[in-house]
Each structure stands twice: as C-alpha cells, then as structure tokens.
Amino acid sequence: MSEILTKSRARNVFYGGSIFFVLVFVALTAQSHRHITQTATAGMELTDEVRHGKHVWERHSCINCHTLHGEGAYFAPELGNVMTRWGAAEDPELAYEILDGWMKAQPSGIEGRRQMPFFEITDEEMRALAEFLRWADQTDTQGWPPNDAG
Amino acid sequence: MKYQSQKVAYAYFLVAMALFGIQVLGGLLAGWIYVAPNTLSEVLPFNVVRMIHTNALIVWLLLGFFGAAYYLVPEESEREIFSVKLAYIQLAILVIGTLGAVVSYLAGIHGGREFLEQPLWVKFGILVAAVIFLVNVSLTFLAGRKTAVTNILMMGLWLLCLLWVFAFINPDNLSLDKMYWWMVVHLWVEATWELVMAAILGFLMLKLTGVDREVIEKWLYVIVATALFSGILGTGHHFYWIGTPGYWQWIGSIFSTFEVVPFFAMMSFAFVMVWKGRKNHPNKAALLWSLGSSTVAFFGAGVWGFLHTLHGVNFYTHGTQITAAHGHLAFYGAYVALNLAMFSYAMPVLRNRAPYNQVLNMASFWLMTGGMAFMTFTLTFAGTIQTHMQRIVGDYYMDVQDQLGLFYLMRFGSGVAVVLGALLFIYSMLAVRREVIKPGPVAVPGE
Ligand code: HEM
Ligand code: HEM
Ligand SMILES: [Fe+2]
C-alpha cells in the first residue's frame, strides 16, 4: 500500500472525491426540494393558517416530547398521523374539536402516567394547529408509519 | 506547553466540563421522569428538561473542539495564536449565549426545531463566535507550518461553521424544514465532526505513541476520505419517510452502510499506532480514553447505526427507543470520549505538571463507559419490544410504553453510574492529588 498510496495521492483523492459527492448531493437535494413542494405535500394547500399552526407547534416545543414523521422525542405518541387516528384527516371542524378538547384536558394529573403540560392557546391558534396537523398527515411519506398506532 | 497562547484552551475546557455536568444531570432528570412521570410535571415539563440535556451536550462538545483547536493549532503551526484576546471574547459570547438560552428555556421561550431551539439572538451570537474563531485560527494556521492534522481540522471546522447557516433556514413547508434540518444535524455528526475527530485523534496518536508523522497523516487522509464519501450521500438514511423521494431508500441504505468504514478505520488506526509506537508515554489515562473513544464510536455509530439504517429495518424502528439507544452510544463514543481524551492529555500540560490522578481518571472511564453501554442495552431491549408491539402488532403507543417500565428503571440506574463517572472525571481533572497507587517500575526495553 505504501508505494501506490502516497500521502499526497491520498489527499488528492480525498479532496477530489469530496467535491464530487457534494455536487451529487446538491443536485439530488434540489430535485428532492421540487418533489416535496410539487408532489409529496401537494395534497393540501399550504395556507397561512397552516403556517400559523406550524409556528404554534414550534413555540411550544411539542417536538421535545412527540415525534412528527418519526423525528423528535420518544416520550409521547407520533403525531404525523394523529388526525388519521382520530378519523379527522378530512374534516377540519372535527379536527379542531377533538384537538381543542384534548389540549384543554391536560395535564391529566393521573398518578404514574406521563403528563402533557397545559398550553395557553387561543381558539384561532388551536384551529391553525389542527390544520397544521392535518396538513402534515396528508404528506406522502412512502407509506410510513406501518399502521395507525404511529 | 510550548506556546503561551495555548493556555486559552484551559478556559474552554473548564467551561466545557461544567456544561458536561449540567448535561448529564439533565439527562438523569429526564430519565427519572420516565420512571416517575409526575415529577415536576407542572414546573419543569419533560420537553424543557430534554432541551437543556441535548443543547448542553452540543455546546460543550463544540467548546471542547474549540479548545482543542486552540491547543493543537499553535503546536502544529509552530507559532502563537493570532489573538488571545479574540479567543477569550469568543468564549465570553458563547458563555453568555448559553446562559441566555438556559434562562429563556426555563421561562418557556424557545424555538421548536429539535436541537436548534436556541432563541434567534443566541443563534446569531453563535454565528459571531464562529466567525471570530475561524478568523483567529485560520490566521494562525495560514502563517505557520501546515500539517495534515491542521488541514483536516481546519476543513472540518470551516465546514461545520458554514453548515450552521441551515440553523437559520426554517421553511414553512414541514418536509422542507425537515430536509434542511438534517443538513446541520447529520452533516455535523456524520461528516464534518468526523474530520475534527480524526484530526484530534491523529494529534493524540502523534503525541502519545511517537509513531512517524508520515504514517499517521496518510491514515488520516484515508479515514476522512471514507468519512465524506459515505457520509454525504448517507444523509439519505434520514430521507426515507419525511416526504422526500423514494430513491433515497436505496441511496441512503447503501451509502450509510459504508459509514461504518471510517469508524472501523479510526478504531484500527488507534490500535495499530499504539502497537507500532515504542513511546512509553506517562499519560496512560489519555491513552485509555483515545482507544476507548474510537472503539465505542465504532460500536455506537458503526454497529448500532447499521442496526437500523437499512430502509427495510428503519421502516419499523424509525423514531423508537432504538434511535435513542444509538444516539447515546454514538455521541458518547465518538465525541464525548474523544473530548475527554483531549482534556486528559492537555490538562496536565496546561497546568504545567506531570499527569496526575490517573487511577481516578481511568476509574471514571470504566464507570462512564460501563454506564453508557448498559444504558444502550436497556434502550435497545425497550426499543425492540416497542417496535414489535407498536409497529408490527399495532398496539397503541401509550399502552406499549406501560410495558417498558423495567427497562426505564434500569436506564435510570445506568444514568446514575454515568453521572458518578462524570463527576469523578471532573474531580480528577481539577483536584490535584498524589496518586492513589504508585506506578510500578518501568520495564527496561530488551529485558
Ligand atoms: C445520566 C445519563 C443520561 C441519561 C439518564 C439520559 C437520558 C436521556 C433521555 C431520557 C432522553 C430523551 C429521550 C426521549 O426523547 O424520549 C435523552 C436524549 C438524548 N441524550 Fe441523553 N441521557 C444521559 C446521558 C447522555 C450522554 C452522556 C449523552 C451524549 C453522549 C446523551 C445524549 C443524548 C442525545 C443525543 C439525546 C437525543 C436523542 C435522540 O433524539 O435520538 N445523553 N437522554
Ligand atoms: C458519531 C456518529 C453518529 C452520531 C453522533 C449519531 C447520532 C444520532 C442521533 C442523535 C440520531 C437521532 C436524531 C433524531 O433526533 O432524530 C441518529 C439517528 C440515526 N442514525 Fe446516527 N449517529 C452517528 C452515526 C451514524 C451512523 C454511522 C449510522 C449508520 C451506519 C447512523 C444511522 C442512523 C439512523 C438510520 C438514524 C435514524 C433513526 C430513526 O429513523 O429514527 N448514525 N443518529
Ligand atoms: Fe445520520
């Protein structure tokens, strides 16, 4: 190995190869960007309400207990398909009502059960959050999760 | 210490160790909440504890890297750091930003992207600190001798700072948000940080084993080449189920499988160098941490990463306790233990004395490593049961979690061992004592 692979050769392979893989990666990322906006998430319009809902989701750091499309914390259930689980994926009004009822019942205070905090959320924000979760639910995630349990 | 300005590393290491303490205490509390879920639930909910745990981890590892750079760049470049003052200003900004972030988390003010929850002003502070750092080290590097160690270190540090830009990019489209989020998270730990790891490990091997520089540097280029060739497209293992195209299932599976190679190479590198090297360096603790780091990184990142990286497996394990098991052992082996190796090596030099408290230090290695390994096993068992019951049988999440109490109790127990190990490590670094045990006589070569 020592004669064929000199230090400067190894270095050049490293630099050249890395540039090659970065270029391939950038191209695939651009293609994936287009796929996301035009195909995978095109099933429902990205309205101002959905955007607002995402901000509500972020402000309360829901991701540090729940997973969303399988990413986040593992302390609480998957929410990427929660609207499907509730049978509310196609029904904005039902989605809002169930979510509102759920959020207002927290924390449960049940001894020995994981607690979800109570969040100060206005009606308008709650509707936005429900729309955001409906929007996330309709994403084409290549068939994941395996079942409604999430 | 050959160069006076290396001393700034001392301050970085002290702050890093303090945050390490906070990190593991936060982890212990999070682990306790799994066991007794009503603990503090109204004052300090789980999500806040978790943010403190993960953010403290990332910040202290970065502080460790910065400190390591300030320590080794002068020695490799054979000159003083461009500006010691800038280095302290950078540290001050990072400390203020960190304290600010913790206070605002406790007050309920935070962003909502995992690991990137810092308020915007803190993110900017980090950006400013990164720029100061890059200017400071680059000017030192450019003016002096260039070696493979510093080439690779500088490249890793530049790229990881540049990737921080993605922390500011948060598209309204959730799937886009997720895709760009990984450009920080994955391309840090599985690309740019690996370059930093290889460089620091290379430096430690140079110092501890006395193997010829030419040999070490060639290894380094081969290691980092395999890291980037696999790690960049390996990002695809996070693009299976988030709205990205289906072809990532193949690209991600194939390239991320090759990500095992650089970790295997780093482990082999460390052992081969120690075997070849004839130097009997007195700092045995630093040597133990260096070998331990590359070995545990191979298991945590390589073996536990491969365990769930093929898309057919990941379909079922995605986002379960299996992920948490892997995250813990990988971070611990690759980056925690590596930083502790550097601290163990550099602290005696920075304090101008012979290596001290080595027995305590090595005991802390076994306590921490044993604790993390046990934690990984318990989480892997919990995750296997979870995967089966929830993903295959289809039982509801909360019902499944109710079955896993025993594993979470054992995870807490292993967390206690880790915390004790961490405190023992910090003590062994700070409190200078006489050795607990006298070293035996040095064997005469050829005897
Ligand atoms: C006292 C020891 C520790 C305990 C008890 C502990 C516990 C925890 C808990 C309960 C979580 C949240 C998991 C969830 O979302 O459900 C977590 C997350 C995490 N911890 Fe620890 N931890 C400890 C030490 C460490 C150490 C030493 C590291 C670094 C090597 C670390 C790195 C992480 C990371 C990266 C995450 C996020 C994992 C992910 O998102 O997959 N922890 N930890
Ligand atoms: C030192 C290097 C590494 C570190 C620190 C690390 C850390 C992590 C962490 C913290 C996560 C969870 C992210 C989240 O919160 O969602 C994760 C996920 C993952 N890692 Fe790694 N990792 C490393 C190397 C690897 C390698 C080499 C492989 C493959 C061979 C791998 C495969 C994976 C996979 C497939 C996931 C996604 C798990 C899921 O679907 O839930 N990792 N890693
Ligand atoms: Fe990854």
TrEMBL record, chain A:
KW Magnesium (keyword) present: no
Protein name: Nitric oxide reductase subunit C
PROSITE patterns: CYTC
SUPFAM superfamilies in the cross-refs: Cytochrome c
Keywords on record: Heme, Iron, Membrane, Metal-binding, Transmembrane, Transmembrane helix
Keyword Membrane: yes
Domain Cytochrome c, residue spans: 48-137
Record field: transmembrane: 12-30
GO molecular function: electron transfer activity; heme binding; metal ion binding
Source organism per UniProt: Alloyangia pacifica
UniProtKB/TrEMBL annotation, chain B:
Biological source species: Salipiger mangrovisoli
Domain of life (superkingdom): Bacteria
Chain segments annotated as transmembrane: 12-35, 55-74, 86-108, 120-142, 149-169, 181-206, 218-241, 247-274, 286-307, 327-347, 359-385, 405-430
Entry keyword Transport: yes
InterPro entries to which the protein is assigned, alphabetical: Cyt_c_oxase-like_su1_dom, Cyt_c_oxase-like_su1_sf, Cyt_C_Oxase_1
PROSITE patterns: COX1 (PS50855)
Keywords: Electron transport, Membrane, Respiratory chain, Transmembrane, Transmembrane helix, Transport
One protein family per Pfam: COX1
Alphabetical list of Gene3D superfamilies matching this protein: Cytochrome c oxidase-like, subunit I domain
Protein known as: Cbb3-type cytochrome c oxidase subunit I
Domain Cytochrome oxidase subunit I profile residues, every copy: 220-447
